[in-house]
Design a protein that fits this description.
The protein is 51% helix and 14% strand. The chain contains nine helices and five strands; from the N terminus they run E-H-E-E-H-E-H-E-H-H-H-H-H-H. Strands 2-3-1-4-5 form a five-stranded mixed β-sheet. The chain is an alpha+beta fold. The protein has two domains: 7-109, 2-Layer Sandwich (TATA-Binding Protein), CATH 3.30.310; 119-205, Arc Repressor Mutant, subunit A, CATH 1.10.10. The relative contact order is 0.12. The longest helix is centred in the middle third of the chain and has 16 residues, at 120-135.
């Protein structure tokens, strides 16, 4: 393995019977002339891929085709010296996937989730501060407000677009947003509200 250059570090679940979430990755990559080294740890399979001019997306696309369980990847440009940090980041990204998932994710795609996973107390606080009163509602009303908040954020805070996705009227979305805002005691406007509410909703989706 080269001392310098870019590396891709991959971690994948390994069940007690030794079955990996990424079966035969070294063989699959070798067929594409991509070198890699794989090591079995207690409950994960760890791979080191020196990119050596290969596009990381090219490597990940091939590995995703093999994925049968949870897997995650992190990249470093610091050669072997950066592998340990990339491995820790990949492990954190792996932890953002629920058990039973069959997906390979990059840590770059999971930054908010990784930050929340690193601080369980912060995760609990932000959920309580932004969604606590909503979560204490009866199930039907709770799910309706959570679904509306999620759709509204995913629509770049456009009530009209969110209404189309939810198959309801724009005023219905606005009424639900006002209801949620009144319950939590926070206005849903401004950059800080956007960031914190997004984090709170992401925290709800993380595995326990």
């Amino acid at each position: 393995m080269p001392l310098g250059g870019q590396y891709l570090v991959i971690v994948a679940d390994l069940d007690p019977d030794g079955v990996a979430a990424l079966p035969s990755p070294q063989t699959a990559l070798a067929a594409l002339s991509v070198r890699s080294v794989w090591h079995v740890r207690t409950d994960t399979l760890v791979g080191l891929v020196p990119l050596e001019g290969h596009d990381p997306q090219f490597v990940l696309t091939r590995l995703r085709a093999l994925t049968r369980g949870r897997a995650a990847a992190a990249r470093t440009a610091d050669g072997l010296a950066g592998v340990a940090l990339a491995h820790r980041l990949a492990i954190l990204a792996l932890g953002t996937l629920p058990r039973g998932a069959a997906e390979l994710v990059r840590v770059e795609d999971r930054y908010p989730d990784v930050l929340l996973l690193r601080s369980p107390e912060l995760r609990r606080r932000i959920v309580q501060d932004w969604l606590g009163p909503v979560l204490r509602l009866p199930p039907r009303e709770r799910e309706l407000l959570l679904e509306t908040l999620t759709a509204w954020l995913e629509a770049d805070r456009s009530a009209g677009v969110a209404a189309e996705r939810l198959y309801c009227h724009r005023n219905t979305v606005l009424n639900r947003l006002q209801r949620a805002s009144a319950l939590v005691g926070h206005p849903l406007t401004g950059r800080r509200a956007y960031v914190e509410l997004s984090l709170a909703l992401s925290a709800l989706e993380l595995p326990d």
